[in-house]
Write a structure and sequence with these properties.
Blueprint lengths: L2 E4 L6 H14 L3 E4 L18 H9 L5 E3 L7 H6 L8 E6 L2 E6 L17 E3 L6 E6 L2 E6 L12 E6 L2 E6 L4 E6 L2
Amino acid sequence: MKLFFISDIHGSEFYLKKAIEKYLEEKADYIVILGDILYHGARNPLPKGHNPKGVIEILNSYSDKIIAVRGNCDSEVDEMVLAFPIMSTYSNILYGNKRLVLTHGHIYNEENLLPLTKGDVFIYGHTHLPRAEEIDGLYFLNPGSIALPKENNPHSYGVLSNNIFQVKNLEGNIIKEINIK
């Protein structure tokens, strides 16, 4: 199974279209959205191509392929217009012999972890910073942000296939990689 991860779309139809192009090129089975889908947030600038209605239309056309969790900028009103659930603060996916713990990162994060077992994979967004790291037998992964990257990082997404997690820029170049053994 191949999973495609995006986070922090913040209503950018422009960058979502680029990410969907990569999803199709990657031939991934599912799109995992780690929150902050439609609203840009009071602290963020408007991203390029800000068009929440366009984002809704695109994502709803892939609703049967989307697994999503709630970000700090998401609300119940957003779930009313999206054709897939987004209000869970975290979710789990079993991936081979691994448990992938999905969250946005504003509630559960490295300082406030859910109960994890050695070998679990903690995947989050929120920081807008790509990450692929193993610490004390736990994996911490973040695909970065497709719309509003921080600290001079590129617009990015993540792919998990054959136990290899890669963060790639929107040109498809690998910027981080880790084997989740």
